[in-house]
Each structure stands twice: as C-alpha cells, then as structure tokens.
UniProtKB/TrEMBL annotation:
Annotated protein name in UniProt: Inosose dehydratase
Known EC number: 4.2.1.44
Cofactor: Co(2+); Mn(2+); glutathione
GO biological process: inositol catabolic process
InterPro entries: IolE (IPR023952), IolE/MocC (IPR030823), IolE/XylAMocC-like (IPR050312), Xyl_isomerase-like_sf (IPR036237), Xyl_isomerase-like_TIM-brl (IPR013022)
Lineage top rank: taxon: Bacteria
Gene: iolE
Matches recorded under HAMAP family: IolE (MF_01672)
Record-linked Pfam families: AP_endonuc_2
One Gene Ontology MF term: manganese ion binding
Key words, A-Z: Cobalt, Lyase, Manganese
C-alpha cells in the first residue's frame, strides 16, 4: 500500500481562481489561496497565474505556510508553432520549477485545442489530430522529456478534453509513439471521466507510467447537459461539471485508490476541481476532499 513518507497531497489554485476563466475567482488573492490550502491540510500547490513570478516572493509565501510547489501546467504548441519555440518556453518553465524543488512538469499539446473557447461545443468540435500532428507532438514531447531529465525532473502528459488527446484511443496512440522513460503520464480522473472513459481501466493500463495525479470527480447531470446542450468545456466548468473527490457521482474512488496503492504510487495527489468559487467555497471543498482522502488512505 502507500508509503506515507512518499505520498503527498496538494491542491490546484484553479479551484480558487480559474486561469482559463478569470471571472471565476479573479478577486481572490494567491495568499488566500495558499493559506486556505494549508488550512485544509495540504502541503503542496501547483502554480497558478496569480502566483508571484519573482522566485523569492513566492518562496517566502510558501515557506511561511509550510507549502511546496509540486507542478505547474505547461502548454505545448508543437502543432501550430516551430518546435524550438515550445522548447525555449519549456526551458524557462522547467528552470523556475526546478528552483522551487518541483520534480514534475505536467503538460499538454494545446495548439489546436478548443478548451479555451467559451462558445465552441466541446463534443461536436473536438479536434482530430492528423498523423503529422501526432508525429510532431510525439517527437517534441520526447525532447522535452530529455530536457527535464537534465535537471533530474520528468514531464507528465495530461490528456485533456478538447485538445485532440482526449479519448483513451487518442492517448493510447500517443503513448505507443513515445518512450515511456521520456514521456510519463499525468493521471486526471476528471478528464478521463468527462471523455467517457473508465478512469480505473485507464489507470490500470498506465499506472507504471503515472508520475503525477489530478483528482477530481464529475457531476453526471452536468455531463448530460454538456452533451445535450452542446456546451463548451468552459461552459461545463461554469455549470459545475467538476467537483472534488467525495462530492461527485462518477469516479470509482475505491478502484482508483486500490490500483495506486497496489502499485505503491509515490509522489503528489493534487485535488483539482475547477468550479465557480462563488457557488462552491474552495476552502470548504478542499477540507471535504482532504477528509475523503484521509478516510480512503489513512494518511
Ligand atoms: O490540469 C488541468 C489544467 C487546467 O488548466 C485545466 O483546464 C484543467 O481542467 C486541468 O485538469
Ligand atoms: Co488536470
């Protein structure tokens, strides 16, 4: 089962201020966000776009709260820009995370993604990547994997609704095209479920390749509305598609914890359930999630 010395629990700042939709929690400060994560019993945070870009300022804000940075999302644009552009951006992002002690860089290809468009129907307009685009992404990711290893870090690929790597078939193709040592996986329960996949089956297939975990559940009645009303990803978020573990009704948490435990998963489990903070108090939901995890793992 889990080694409590090597399993850490964090939160994603998107639960407080949504980087993709700043009107959701835009008024909340990064200080409040970090303080409430710590208050809820978490020791780690991912980096949000309101966090200070100055290393010393961020380190001080983390240290006084006993918090660490465990990851920061990186957007790859191998399908729409020269590979060198993503590589140069990645090196800066990697070095900032390295200076903060993070060991993982979660990322996804977003060049042709529709996730950021509020008026584009998610299921009807999800991009289908060409063979050439898959090849560019696979080769680019392997180069980023090599660059991460230079700093004793690893990338972790985040399949994501609306990006072209959304379904298990699309993920399988990318995983088959890339070296597992260079391109590990970020397991996100919410995106697997949103895509109509069985997150336990996906985890069972790739658990040995998982280096970082995002925990979120899905509200089934909102998922039905996203499909029926042709909503976009961001409209789904505003309507509450995602919620924290222990509050949704779609993810088989016993199955997820069983596989992670049997495979002695080590690293971070991050609670990431972006929803409207005016409707779902981020502190209340962070406490709910931490209590749920404690009940399931004893940690
Ligand atoms: O890991 C993630 C990063 C966010 O920006 C994204 O939209 C969210 O859904 C997610 O899972
Ligand atoms: Co995620």
């Amino acid at each position: 089962m889990f080694n409590k010395e090597k399993l850490h629990f964090g939160c994603a700042p998107i639960n407080w201020t949504n980087d993709d939709l700043p009107e959701l929690g835009g008024e909340l400060t990064y200080q409040q966000c970090l303080s409430e994560m710590a208050l809820a019993g978490f020791t780690g945070s991912e980096i949000g776009n309101k966090y200070p870009k100055d290393l010393d300022t961020l380190k001080k804000a983390l240290d006084i709260r006993g918090m660490r940075i465990c990851n920061a999302w990186f957007s790859c644009e191998f399908t729409t820009k020269p590979m060198e552009e993503t590589i140069e951006n990645f090196k800066k992002h990697r070095d900032f995370l390295h200076a903060l002690g993070a060991k993982v860089i979660g990322l996804a290809e977003v060049g042709v993604s529709i996730q950021g468009y509020e008026d584009v129907p998610l299921f009807k307009k999800a991009p289908i990547l060409t063979d050439e685009q898959f090849e560019k992404i696979a080769r680019g990711l392997e180069e980023l994997g090599r660059l991460a290893k230079e700093k004793d870090m690893e990338i972790a690929y985040h399949y994501h609704m609306g990006t072209g790597i959304q379904s298990l078939d699309e993920l399988d193709r990318l995983m088959d095209m890339t070296d597992p040592q260079l391109v590990p996986l970020l397991f996100d329960t919410g995106h697997a479920t949103f895509a109509g996949e069985d997150s336990v089956a996906l985890l069972e297939k790739y658990v040995k390749r998982v280096r970082h975990v995002h925990f979120k559940d899905v509200r089934s009645e909102v998922l039905e509305r996203v499909k029926k009303e042709d909503l976009s990803f961001l409209q789904g978020v505003k309507e509450g598609i995602f919620t924290v573990p222990g509050d949704g009704d779609m993810v088989d948490w016993d199955g997820v914890f069983k596989i992670l435990g049997e495979n002695n998963y080590e690293g971070w489990i991050v609670i990431e359930a972006e929803q409207d903070p005016a409707k779902a108090d981020p502190l209340e939901y962070a406490i709910k999630a931490r209590k749920f995890i404690q009940e399931k793992t004893g940690i």
